[in-house]
# Entry
Amino acid sequence: MLVETKQMLPITRLQKELTQTVRELSDSGKPVYILKNNNMEAVLLSYYEYEYLKEIETIFEQFEIQNVIETRLKKYDPKNNVSWEKIREEAWFVNIQFIPEAAKDYKSLDVYLKKLVNEKIDKLKEDPFLGEALGNKNNIDLTGFYKIYVAKKSYRIVYRIVKEKIEIVEIWGIGKRNRMEIYKIVGKRISKRK
# Structure
């Protein structure tokens, strides 16, 4: 990625010139690349640029959802549908289990994040299909796995439903979405068990 030198700013200079930098960013709309020890550390964006990127992220998620739906529609046969009442009747008890690595993920969280994860897992007990199906994420085959968001979508809980009667929800990972981190971790865990 090519970046204009005048758009780069050492963090020490940013600390001194924050107000001026924000004003210039607002006027020009050009991002400011923040350096720490001569390495790219962060990027300051205008509010409008940030909102635009959030919109694009939403559009990509919609495409992922559309892809999952289209894949399922190819195999769809309404005769195989199961009523929600039947599922709830058969699965009135859901056992939440963590694979050992996911238990370590959980233990490494701070108290605040643990509280948020606990709330989501309680909801998962009530509705194992709460999460979104994952499918293939950047050539990581997560077919059969689901994700639920935690902490304003900055963390994910990745899990699968084990057995036909939804008796066990197996947590495979808890972590940040940043750079597909949690999906890569779960992909490696899946590979180890094959």
The radius of gyration is 21 Å. The chain has two domains: 5-45, 83-193.
